[in-house]
Amino acid sequence: MKDSIHQRHIRVAISYFAMAALLGVLLRFYPIFSFGFNYRYMVHAHSHIALLGWVYVALTTLIHYCFVEKGTSDKKYTRIFWFTQVSLVGMLLTFPFQGYALFSIFFSTLFLIMSYVFFHYFSRNSDPKFRHGNSLRCIRAALWYMVISSLGPWALGIIMGTLGAQSIWYRLAIYFYLHFQYNGWMLLALIGLFLFAMERRDMVIPKKSFMWFSWILNAGVVLTFFLSTLWIEPPPLLYVLAGIGAIAQGCGLVLLWAMAKYDIKVLPLSKLQALLMKTAVFLVFIKIALQLLTALPYFARIATMYLDLTIGYLHMTFLGMISIGLFFLVDYFGLFVISKKAYQWYFWGFLVTEILIFYKGFAAWVQWPIFKGYMEILALVSLSILCGLLLLMVLNRNRT
């Protein structure tokens, strides 16, 4: 019973991902067909459903599946899950039509409250046998980062009511939220779930080594927030702290890989699972390299001036590192089958759109012309991501 619940919940998460991809395709075709919707409102819907519908639902489902004792508090978890869905569907039905307004803010607030409820529920119901495991320590840290990130949305209301949406504090609040979502909550949760897979095979990283990794990585997570402030050209100290943070985060992840790489060979991985894991790890280190680069003042200005470079980085992090990491985990734990054909549709769509987005940003930087038909090609290639996700849903539709 428990397994079928989690399988259904992962299918719900994938459905949100497909919906976010559909909204993304509409946004890509917007300048071509001049659709009648409000572009900015649709961006809000796209980003909220992608982050909160796909990633949050998938991660919390995996966390519950792995760390909550079987047969305990299933009813509470189910209630939390469905109240969360009310908030997500509410956002999906309001953001495209009104942007940030009364009803969308209501459902966004409801989501934040339900995330706190999940945090409290998990703190009370995690299986005692994992209490001293490294994996549970990572998950707890991840959930704390999730709570910390929520300070950004709460601050937005105050900032809009006092300083206005044009204030630099408005953008900083958004960047605060995104940073601790991507680099804190999501990254630490993926690491914690990966460590759980290792611990289940009796492969344990020594406590002292893990503590070094934990301190270094968490210092990196906190300090790399300053990378998100460099667009305001702050005092030199913040550049130094941002650089230290990027180095610390990179060192922490390299240390983790060095400690785990030999044990990984013992994991019973299929060829596709091994490919998914290696791809996610590769993209993690690409992300770290870009962070190191943007800690330098010159490249920080470039990233600020050319929005496509920032969009490419965020899509690489979300569609690449996080989503492919989640594909690996749901397939490894047997909650959702990632087929090779569907993944190929998804991956090639992701790869080519990334190349095109980064090309546009690079071309603006070096003053190259954009080739004819760029928008049409980008829009058509984006369909590949949606097709891959829809194929995944079809292939898993009869699975229980």
Automatic annotation (TrEMBL):
Transmembrane segments: 12-33, 45-68, 80-97, 103-122, 143-168, 174-198, 210-232, 238-259, 280-300, 312-338, 345-368, 374-395
Swiss-Prot/TrEMBL keywords: Membrane, Transmembrane, Transmembrane helix
Coiled-coil region(s): none
UniProt protein name: Uncharacterized protein
Source organism per UniProt: Flagellimonas aequoris
